[in-house]
Amino acid sequence: MPALRAVLPGERIHVWPDIPDPAAIDVALVAQPPAGALRPFANLRLIQSLWMGVDGLLADATLPRGVPLARLVDPGMLAAMSETVLACVLDWHRKHYRYRAQQRERRWRPLRQALASDRTVGLLGLGELGRDAAAKLAALGFGVCGWSRRPKALAGVECFAGEDGLRALLARSGALVCLLPLTEQTRGILNTEAFARLPEGACLINVGRGAHLVERDLIAALDSGHLAHAYLDVFATEPLPADHPFWAHPGITLTPHVAALTEPRTAAAVVAENVQRVRRGQTARDLVDLASGY
Ligand code: NAP
Q1: Strands of the chain, DSSP E
Q2: Is there a contact between 8 and 275 (Cβ–Cβ < 8 Å)?
């Protein structure tokens, strides 16, 4: 809130649910409000998400569909997500997940190393996050390929689209990173069929949404030894229930949905830009296409 007030000194900012006159509110800043929370605001001109993913907002049938919805494209979040992806890829590439297991057994056993150029990282999603991660992985010398809905050409990235493209990407990807939005087309995309197409010893990094992953399929792929390791930041149920098998699975490293948190120091300026665009009667940036669901 202090960051927002600093960049929007002329605006009156109220914090829900303490809002004296909902009809006077024209911009709603929201993360994951309870279903129906936006209903009393009859004169909205912009709904600005404070998260990059808007699947939770779109799941609310009462979300006013006629009001432009902008998602947050925050430079601090972009940097954080690429750092998370690099941390996971390097953990797998440098075999730290195996050294951690060896340490638990007090076992001194050097493993053969690979060069970054021996590896190919496949990115599902070449949007704001996927493109930033792709450039940083390529700078470290990894082969990089990526998959998007519409065909793309990106320097240093082998780009794929469509069902055939997905199969081609999976066959190349020693590390598979999910940076897709959750839509009806992408739900459950990380499943047995996809895992079977990955090379033996591949790792999965899911930093998209929990519902991209079919959980039992992952456990089977890890237990069979086909997948070497999985890095999971997002889950079908969050917080992850205490009795969930992922907690204790030796093939899983998990984090509590922190791959990229909204960073007020960088996000405030982006939000302010959109509020100012509304004030000037201009179209907001980073609008969600309701038809495609992201
Ligand atoms: P974005 O800019 O909207 O990019 C989405 C990418 O996915 C685009 O390349 C898009 O293709 C592709 N895509 C969408 N549907 C597809 C389909 N059916 N088939 C193939 N490709 C498809 O999104 P972003 O900003 O990069 O964010 C991606 C997601 O990351 C968010 O939606 C959110 O769920 C997740 N996220 C997670 C965290 C965390 O902390 N774990 C933080 C932030 C975001 P086109 O380029 O052709 O449109």
Answers
A1: 27-30, 46-49, 69-70, 120-124, 143-148, 158-161, 175-178, 202-206, 227-232, 252-254
A2: yes
Output phi, psi for 87, to 5 deg: -60, -45
Residues serving a catalytic function are: 209, 257
Which helix H or strand E contains 182, and what residues bound it?
A: none
Ligand 1 binding pocket, CB closer than 6 Å: 52-53, 77, 81, 125-130, 147-150, 179-183, 185-186, 207-209, 233-234, 257, 259-260, 294
- The sign of the dihedral angle between the CA atoms of 84, 90, 91, 92 is positive
- CA–CA distance, 163 with 124 (Å, rounded to integer): 12
Tens of pLDDT, residue by residue over 146-155, are 999 999 999 9
Nearest to 145 by CA among 116, 173, 118: 173
Give me ligand 1 centre to Cα 20, in Å: 36
* pLDDT of 1 strictly over 90: no
Q: Calculate how far, in angstroms, residue 111's C-alpha sits from the geometric centre of ligand 1.
A: 35
AA letter at 14: H
How crowded is residue 242: how many other Cβ atoms within 10 Å of its Cβ?
6
Of 85, 292, 57, which is closest to residue 203 (Cα–Cα)? 85
> What is the side-by-side order of every strand in the sheet holding 27-30?
27-30, 46-49, 69-70
